[in-house]
Design a protein that fits this description.
96 residues; mainly beta; 4-stranded antiparallel sheet; 3-stranded antiparallel sheet; 0% helix; globular; Ig-like domain-containing protein; transmembrane; CD300_family_receptors; Ig-like_fold
Amino acid sequence: GYSGGGLMIKCEHPQHKTKPKYICKESDGCSERKNPGVQDEWMENGDVSLCDDTRAGVLMVFFRELKAADAGTYRCGVNVSHYTERFTELQLNIKH
């Protein structure tokens, strides 16, 4: 992504369409997990907007006004059960 710009990430979990999905930054230990809190509509959560599309099994994450601090490794995951989760790692780089 580019500094000051926006970026859309699609995290696909088609086998877990209706399970709660989240995104978090690994460098902070994933202590703050951002999720929409509702399904099938856009919600703002801090500096990002999220939509959990249960028809496609996709968590859409829109970063606004990217800054250097947003760079890093993220986990895009889904809570399969109380004790089990699945996630994909992604690397976000910010260019000036």
